[in-house]
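Run log // design_07
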């Protein structure tokens, strides 16, 4: 949840609007990096913004946009995917 809040704050929009911008091809490279950074850090990686920029450059914008789409889709589906079907304990 913290990562999603960080993404929304850095992109100045809610997750649904960000996904809409992605669908319309209206995300900037800054937005893409701002989406990827908290997710990568949330996985326990100590990575800096510049390293994310370099990874996006090396992978290509199409791959980075695809990764963002997957991240945002998982966020909208409640964080559950085919490989993660355990329910959160309150």
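design_07 sequence
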């Amino acid at each position: 949840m913290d990562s999603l809040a960080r993404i929304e704050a850095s992109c100045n929009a809610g997750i649904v609007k960000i996904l809409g911008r992605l669908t319309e091809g209206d995300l900037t490279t800054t937005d893409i990096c701002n989406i990827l950074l908290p997710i990568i850090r949330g996985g326990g990686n100590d990575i800096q913004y510049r390293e994310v920029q370099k990874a996006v450059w090396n992978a290509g914008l199409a791959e980075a946009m695809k990764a963002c789409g997957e991240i945002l889709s998982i966020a909208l589906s409640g964080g559950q995917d085919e490989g993660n079907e355990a329910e959160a304990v309150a």
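Residues 84-90 have pLDDT under 50 and may be disordered.
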